Amino acid sequence: MRKQNPYLYPIGKKRMQPLGILVFASVMATLGLQIILESARTLFSQEHSLALAESWNWVVAIMVATTVAKFLLMVYCRMFRDEIVRAYAQDHFFDVVTNIIGLIAAVVSSIFAWWVDPAGAIVLALYTMRTWTLTVLENVNALVSRTASPDFLRKITYLCWNHHKDIRQIDTVRAYTFGSHYFAEVDIVLAGDMPLQQAHDIGESLQNKLESLPEIERAFVHLDYEVTHRPEHAYKE
Fold first, then answer.
1. Pairing of strands 181-189, 169-178
2. In Å, how far are 31, 91, 151, 207 from 202, measured between CA atoms?
3. Going along the chain, which residue ranges are E strands?
4. pLDDT higher for 19 or 188?
């Protein structure tokens, strides 16, 4: 995503980030479904060959060490703001939860009831699928150009209105998701007899100001002299 190529990707590759998270979440959900099917088969066939008596200490030591390592990785990944790295943090958190519950289920299954292990696996798989499904839905919004929050739109409007004293009106303000950032579109109204150079300088400086915001990837500033036209673009079906 950081390797830019203005000829092949003229507006950048920010959408690679939610797309990568979508692929990762889809794989995790598929694995959860496979665990449910295998655990259900074990329950119905009543196959219970799990036994920890011979290697109890080794199993517990390995699981505890793995859980501690995953917890430290989770804390480390949460220090970053990059969404992909934070997705890794979420995955490590799931591993901590599943390792703890899985170890408890395995011990209980080995000592008391054999069906606790596959039943616990089904519960964990359902939890994993639900959580990653929410992650998928969240990142889908980043790909379908969903509008920004009203507070963020008000922030852009405030910046535009106070940008220059010659701005008479603000016709349109839009901001919508483009990957992990926003695209912004604003229409400002200037005097009809304003020289082109002056109007250009006002629009360009406003564009630079908007693009300096960390949430905005690109900004488009349209200059107009009246507000009687329809501001919307033509929508193609």
1. antiparallel
2. 54, 47, 24, 9
3. 169-178, 181-189, 216-224
4. 188
Among the ranges given (37-41, 58-62, 204-208, 229-233), the one the predictor scored with the smallest mean pLDDT: 229-233
Q: How far is CA 154 from CA 78, 137, 144, 177, in A?
A: 30, 26, 22, 16
Domains of the chain with bracketed CATH: 15-144 (no CATH), 150-224 (3.30.70.1350)
Q: What is the pLDDT of residues 22-81, one digit of tens each?
A: 888 888 888 888 889 988 888 888 666 555 556 667 778 888 899 999 999 999 988 887
d(CA 39, CA 189): 65
What residues have CB less than 8 Å from 148, skipping those under 6 apart? Answer: 175, 176, 177, 182, 215
Question: Residue 225 phi/psi, 5° resolution?
Answer: -120, 0
Q: Which two tokens stand for residue 31?
A: 């694995």
Scanning the structure block, which residue is given the tokens 């917890």? 71
Q: Phi/psi of residue 6, each to 5°?
A: -65, -15
Torsion of CA 216, 1, 83, 79, to 10 degrees: -100
Contacts 24+ apart (CB under 8 A), 53-57: 53/110
* Strand ranges across the sheet with 216-224: 169-178, 181-189, 216-224
The alpha carbon of residue 105 and the mean position of all alpha carbons in its chain are separated, in whole angstroms, by 32
Half-sphere exposure of 146 (CA within 13 A, CB side): 11
Nearest to 34 by CA among 133, 125, 136: 125
**Predicted model pTM:** 0.63
Classify 48 as helix, strand or coil. Answer: coil
For 53, 85, 96, 206, the CA distances from 220, given in Å and listed in that order, are: 67, 30, 45, 9
